[in-house]
Amino acid sequence: MTSILISGAGIAGTTLAYWLRRHGFAPTVVERATGVREGGYKVDIRGAALDVVERMGLLDDIRALRTDVRTGSVVDGTGRQVASMDGDSFGGRVHQDAELHRGDLARLLHQATDGVEHLFGDSIAAIDGTRVTFAGGLVRHFDLIVGADGLHSATRALAFGPEEHFVHDMGYNVAVFSVPNHLGLDREELTYVGPGRTALVYSTRQDTGMKAMFLWRSADKATGRDAQQRALADAYRGSGWEVPRLLEAMAGAPDFYYDSMSQVRMDRWHAGPVALIGDAAHCASPASGQGTSLALVGAYVLAGELKRAGGDHTIAFPAYEARMRSFAETNQALGPANIKRMVLSSRSQVRMSMLMLRLAGLLPGKDRVMAKVVEPIHRAATAIDLPAW
């Protein structure tokens, strides 16, 4: 039985473990964290990814865990509502797309891999052919190795080279953390747009608090929690609305997250017995809204190609890449276009955008206008045909 080590117990890695086991392989998952990562931002499952979770028998469970965000609104610096629409339209969801917390999805997927070997609290320290040395000192041999360890993949660095060769900064930063629900939101999302910076908060059915998210244009990258929080505070200094109060809450947030908005671009996603999936191979950035769907679909495709090739990676890895590359690149293209709509560059652009939003809310047929806006997302989400392996 072919043994396959998967680095990373996120969405891509756990989905891959599920399908590999189902196809008769022997997967092992190693994860730096001490357990399944809870919490996180809300994520969308769209298009072809819905077919993947349905084939896993998880679609009903996923729908039961939907965030149920009912409305999304844009507000000005005084908190006055500029425009509002239903939650699905605001989030670009159509055709039964599902939104849920990343942690809920991770837990569902982990439960579906019952019987798969998991090595929590460890990571890959070195790869020598198919010989793997773990950070904890363990040395084991595997037939194949798959890096599913995200944007800053250590597996990619070991097998393909330094991160700077593949990770391309889009010129924006993102920060997300939990805050008290002092606004009393009930399954609502509010977005405040300033020049070069956007802030939003939302509440969901399962969460008594709120999540705050910040997106801003910046070439500066901070490392370490204290420096990152100072950078965020500096970027939003002088902002209106609820921003000062939200920033006051970040020091005590247990789940503070900060990173650059980046994409991964590689000529090849495989080298010898090592392959990459998900963000490690083709991160599209949070601005694409497609990272989770790409992870689900990529895992399904790689496992299926390995099954079809009888475990021969010299056939399966190139076939996986051939089937996935166009799909990944189509979804990556959403990122740069979306971030420019999410973070406006100047005061005049903000004023014009607010005016257009006010006018759009007064015009008949606004649903048709929104349908045209979200059509590129739906088209990208369905830009692959999935075989029934």
TrEMBL record:
Respond yes or no to whether keyword Ribosomal protein is given for this record: no
Which ranges carry the FAD-binding domain? 2-306
**GO terms for MF:** monooxygenase activity
Record keywords, A-Z: Monooxygenase, Oxidoreductase
Q: Which Pfam families match?
A: FAD_binding_3
Q: Which InterPro entries match?
A: FAD-bd, FAD/NAD-bd_sf, FAD_aromatic-hydroxylase
Q: What is this protein called?
A: FAD-dependent monooxygenase
